[in-house]
Amino acid sequence: MSEETRDAAVRGPVAIVVAVLVSGLVGWMLTVTFCFCMKDFEGIISSPTGLPAAQIFLDAGGRTGGTIMWFWVILIQFFTGCSAMLADTRMAYAFARDDALPFSGFWSKVNKRTYTPVNAVWLVVLFAICLNCIGIGSGQTIIGIFNITAPALDLSYIAVVIAHLVYEHRVQFIPGPKTLGRWGKPINCIAIVWVCFISVVLFFPSEKPVTFANMNYAVGVAAFIAAFSLSWWWMGARRKYTGPRTKDLAELVAAKDSDDGNYESNVEYRV
Question: What is the pTM of this model?
């Protein structure tokens, strides 16, 4: 997303910090509100709805009030899904553009009429549909897939941090205007330790004794993803992938916008 943000070196870090602070504050308020509204803990856990959060709404607002509140939850989930699809599509297009995906040439095509990566959009949509179809046939499998999302997201964050720490003496990194200064390395080390710890915890089963029914199969899903990614890397991507190819995109956009008579404003915003 930073490729399409104006003054990304400043606005990117600011957006991350603000998002963390706002999400933490609102999440804390929501958690406290839920705790105050819980009347019967055992009844909520064993709710006939199968959704403890929905049962809290029903207990607090009755059938009508709880249904109205739950409608807003569904609406928020819908828009969250749209936002996630947008981010996933952008990443899929970027990786395909940089020759990091199988059949990159097809997925990176930009529609000549809409100027959008339609193929990458459909890749994400169809992949999401296939994942949900798995849930129809096997609830255990889809739960294992869903359980990998949190640790996978956290591990993707620290991958960049680890790479920076490992290669900082071999590659010249140019600090941006927003840095942590001398606190950067200690904070990065704390982040790595915490993410590794919490990722291991998230792979644990939630109940004891562990059986085939309550086993957390997220670790199996993670192993499959890692094996597929490493295999594709060694088979082809390592020979073609050289990092983000934003320079070629900048030249292409600049040439097009100069023809339209709107060179400076469009290049600054879109690259």
Answer: 0.71
